[in-house]
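hey can u check if this looks right to u? its 172 residues, i copy pasted from the old doc so theres a chance i mangled smth
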Amino acid sequence: MTKLKLLILGLCTTTVTILGTPLGALDTTHPDCAATAIDRPLACPPIADILGLSPSVRASHVFFPGGGAKLDAAAKDQLIALSNALLHPDLAQTCLRLVGHTDPVGPEDVNLHLSYLRAQVVAEFLIRQMGIMAPDISVTGRGEAVPLTNIPKESLAHRRVALEARSCPKTG
């Protein structure tokens, strides 16, 4: 497995594991946290903080605590940080897989469609942010089929998009 270290927002070092494992592992105690490249902190969604989700879950998921498929300010900040990180030369051959999820409230077919819409919204935001520098992005929805572990099934934390990265050499 290939591991890359880079500064996200110049505040915290993160390790991105390529080959299908999620982005993540924010380490706020790392000595590089004192470095500054961009002048605002990584915004973790309030729902993630309230539920005590691990830093790797917060960093590798975009949350939709209000339901629907609209990005809130915290999600946008998180995706801007991801966009900036993906511009690093070491990540030039990174592809993203965005996997949408829902909580179990509502009909299963509606949740499956909503989960896909959430992943699509995240992809569109990243593409707008990065333009022609955007990585290859695939989207899929899993509905309510894959809840987070150790979280009550009714929790708002299940309303999310998982961010998965893999090495994807560019051709041509």
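The first helix runs from residue 46 to 50.
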